[in-house]
Amino acid sequence: MAGTRVKARGESALAERFAVFAESLLTGVWIAVVSLGIVTYPAAFAAGARHLRRRTAHEGGGWREFAADFRAALRGGWLVGLAGWAAVAAVWVDVRAARAGIPGGPLVGALGVVALIGLVVAGLRAAAVWAPGTRWRTLLAEAGRRTVLDPAGSFLIIGGLAVVAASAWFSAPLAAPVLGAVAAAAVAVEERYRHR
Question: How many CB atoms sit inside 10 A of residue 154's CB?
Fold first, then answer.
């Protein structure tokens, strides 16, 4: 089916794949820009993922559609963003307690970090399937189950997050476009899970 789409558009498979990669990098910049609102990152990833789903389906879409999706996702997404920062703060306290030498602290700190990574993966998986009118609570509950039931897909998303961290460490401006690659990875993981 994808091959007929490529032929209909007159592009080679390589050109099609490169176009999706380039679009994901541009989407990453859009995600970074609208995530500057601190609690807006879930809505930014949801809008980015929806944009990439449209792109791979050869539907129309651009900055205006991304912005409209972002506004729609922000309605409940800002609460998810706030809860995410609260989880980061709780893990930070756990890690500080572990470093202070509290008995059992290293185990609690490690479990907190693992739980935070799981929450981030579930959040990205929820954002990857977001559509206007869906409730974030429902999306997150289903994404949490998929995070546990599909460990291979979850590790692929963790790998994408590691690439963002490495890019930011190497050169901070590289982290912005790579965010789109993480959104694309989450979309691909969800498509893979859906077709299992």
Answer: 22
Question: What is the model's pTM?
Answer: 0.87
Burial (CB count <10 Å: 0-12, 13-18, 19+), residue 156: middle
Per residue in 12-29, pLDDT (tens digit) is: 877 777 888 889 999 999
Percent over 70 (pLDDT), the chain? 95
Helices (H), the chain: 2-9, 13-34, 41-56, 63-99, 105-129, 136-149, 151-170, 172-194
Secondary structure letter of residue 62 according to DSSP = -
Long-range contacts of 108-116 (CB under 8 A, 24+ apart): 115/87, 115/91, 116/87, 116/88, 116/91
Q: What is the model's pLDDT at position 66?
A: 95
Asked whether the beta carbons of 160 and 177 are under 8 A apart, the reply is no
Question: Could you say which DSSP state residue 20 is in?
Answer: H
